[in-house]
Amino acid sequence: MNMKKFGPAGWLFPKPVMIIGTYDQDGKPNAMNADCGGSWDHTEISLFLGKRRQTTLNLQKHGEFTLALANKDTMVGADYVGIASSLREPDKIARTGWTVEKAPDVNAPLFTEFPLTLECRVKEVLDDATSRDCYHLIADIVGILVDDKYLGEDGYPDIRKMNLICHETVHQTYIQLGETAGKAFREGAKLR
């Protein structure tokens, strides 16, 4: 067996490209690109954010946010909000060209171009004494919004229609998710 060994790195794939939407203290919408987080439970998510970010300040003040999953159509704006800070570029959201509405069930912006958006409320902030720059939170998923054009015949989201992208951290690229490879909890039954 030939295997190349690498040192420690955050190479857990796929990493969804998540856009965190918040309002600042004046009610102005803000967004950031985050890829450190995921499911915590069936109705909870976990996120790791830097402490010195506008989004973190907004979360500390309001405690509610939206989490949109980026796709190929929203990739340019999604990447931009990851490299631009609203602390230095106050017109960040306007530059993306995104349409902003207030989310129905949380006090946070809804960017309507995204195929799927979670409405979230901070449940707990975990103290991480090992990192001075880590803001680790657990949030309840209050609701999920899906654009009708991404629903399947069964009325549920059809992920294949969404053209979702993930962040590939080895080469710093975005990869579009592809076709169905099999049925979860059924493929393994072939070995019984």
From TrEMBL:
Occurrences of domain Flavin reductase like (ranges): 13-149
Coiled coil: none
Cofactor(s) essential for the protein: FMN
One MF annotation (Gene Ontology) recorded for this entry: oxidoreductase activity, acting on the CH-NH group of donors, NAD or NADP as acceptor
Keywords from the named record: Flavoprotein
ATP-binding listed as a keyword: no
InterPro entries: Flavin_Rdtase-like_dom (IPR002563), Flavoredoxin (IPR052174), Split_barrel_FMN-bd (IPR012349)
Superkingdom of the organism of origin: Bacteria
Homology family: Belongs to the flavoredoxin family.
PANTHER family named among the record's database cross-references: FLAVOREDOXIN (PTHR43567:SF1), FLAVOREDOXIN-RELATED-RELATED (PTHR43567)
Name of the molecule in the record: NADH-FMN oxidoreductase RutF, flavin reductase (DIM6/NTAB) family
